[in-house]
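Structure request: Thioredoxin domain-containing protein, Streptomyces formicae.
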Amino acid sequence: MPFLITAVVFVGLLCTLDLILSLGVIKRLREHTELLGALNGRASLGVGETVGDFTAVAVDGTEVSRSGLTDDTLVGFFSPGCPACAEQLPKFVEFAKAVPGGRARVLAAVVGDPRRTADLVARLKPVAQVVAEGQNGAVGSAFAIAAFPSILKVSVQGSGHPIVADARVDLEHLPSSAA
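Returned structure:
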């Protein structure tokens, strides 16, 4: 009988602990939902929106600006410590290798502390013009970046200003070289 009472008390304590942990998880999910809601459902400019004006210096010393964006320019934003960035980076690099026009038509912005972004810059540099900048940098602000990674395709509309042509680039399907 004492064994049965001990087992029932143990199960009761275990259920109470599970209930407390579940309530904690629910509270955290509500906080995350509010944070995502604050993004207004957008991680960057939307399709058809005009890219803001910017000028920045790439890590190789070249100047990049809005006027240098051409049709079908691939633009990616990454940040260190972002698990989704680590997952998407190899796909982005492979996709960028297949972009017609090569490195000149790929822009990557790495956002964060320069000591932590060195690895990302090194991996992106062979396939893209890379800008390393802090939060609210010129390139990120021009694209209204609110989440990482953000991968966009830009085209130039009739007025000559670049617009976002695709805000959800499918990195699984490499671009054709004939494009």
